[in-house]
Amino acid sequence: MHLGEDLITLGVLLVVAYVLGRLGKVIGLPSIPIYMVVGLLASPYTGWFPLNFHAADIELIAVFGLILLLFSLGLEFDQEEFFNNAGKLLISGGTYVVLNMGLGFAFGMMVGWGTREALVIAGMTGTSSSAIITKLLIELRRLANKETPMILGVTVVGDIFIAIYLSIVSVVLSGKTEVWPIVLQLGIAFVFLIVMFSLARWGGKVVSRLVRTKDDELFTILFFGLAVLFAGIGEIIGVTDAIGAFLIGVVLGASSYRAKIERVAVPLRDVFAAFFFLNFGLALHIAEFGSVIVVVLIAVVMTFALNVVSGMILARLHKMGPVEGINAAAILVNRGEFTLILATLSVGAGLNHLLQPFAGLYVLLMAVLGPLFASNSERIGAAFRRKTSRPPAPPVRDRMREEEIALVEAVGNSRVTDDSTQRAVARVVEQAKTQADSTPDGQSASGTDPMADFITDKTAGEKPKRDDRTTDY
Known about the structure:
By secondary structure, the chain is mostly helical. About 75% of the residues lie in helices and about 0% in strands. It contains 20 helices and no strands. It has helices at about 5-25, 30-40, 60-75, 80-85, 85-110, 115-125, 130-140, 150-175, 180-200, 205-210, 215-235, 240-255, 260-280, 290-315, 320-330, 335-350, 355-390, 400-410, 420-440, 450-460. Helix 14 crosses helix 17 (about 355-390) and helix 18 (about 400-410) runs parallel beside helix 20 (about 450-460). About 40% of the residues are buried.
């Protein structure tokens, strides 16, 4: 068997992905749409690429990419943050999920492709990309922002929801119609979830002892083997290979070797994930985009609108302002790998064939517009703040206040010599000071009444000049 041509094809595709990736970095694009575009160029449906390359040739490598994507997601799952702030996170994250998933399912029903298709569309449009969110927060230097803990909390809840949602979707897509087999499969799926999360929560020390080794090569083989093994277990018991990989990632992330696993796993994930996205692009038929473009555009507008509303609601729940809400919306609006995972599952389950071009075009648009929105959200928030802020109202002076000021000015300039007038001025000064002590309205920056400030400025340290024409008794 000669593999020279296949190796050349893979090498050329990766070099093209590198070149386009460098160009994408200039305008702030993530890598996901770049790899999909490369796959689209090499697709047998386009004829734009000079090599005859089919998706089946790299399907197994793409599966490894999917497994490592979800494994890394589980590895980064912050269970301490979740369990320490479970109540607050469930309220904020649950609000985001319910709002986006609920309206996403309603939108899917309006499309008219079927109930199962509507459930898949709800997941595609209602769940954020953890990978893109984390990458954007780092690249935009917003880890220290006020709204970032809220965003990460919503992401943590979203990761748990993805595990539960995929378990349900896998049962729905299995095509079973009898009640008890469905109940049994769901029961097995939830037991698997509970066991793995419990092991991650309370079995960290045991897991650390089991995976302990000083040999980096053997250590890499071990964690990669565990990821593939539990992906297979997940596939067999009906929760999909992706969730099996995610759960073993959560368990290993609870061990003391989390940093070491990440150091080795991230480069592997990046390489294999590139094949996953490239493989998805290979399966896209650009001629089918025309049949879904209207639906995709509506979905994009709906996604942005829902995330702006969700961001404002989350900001209010966390006692933040609209600027933080806009920043949160701009980060959480990004969609990516999970949408493509759902599309892959739907194709395998024999659902409407339009789901694949819908997911492909939707992710391409969202992966371009989302980061652009995120990179400009602070400027949008600043403009929003200037528009909504009101200038302070000018001080109101009534006629009596004007007379008081005139009298005090006369005293300060030593133009009053009449004893009765001086006594009247003294009464005015006393009344102004008394009013400043008892009335908070109209306070000045120094904490007193503006009239009292004026009096103090005019009279402090001064004594009325003696008039030689008057006689002292």
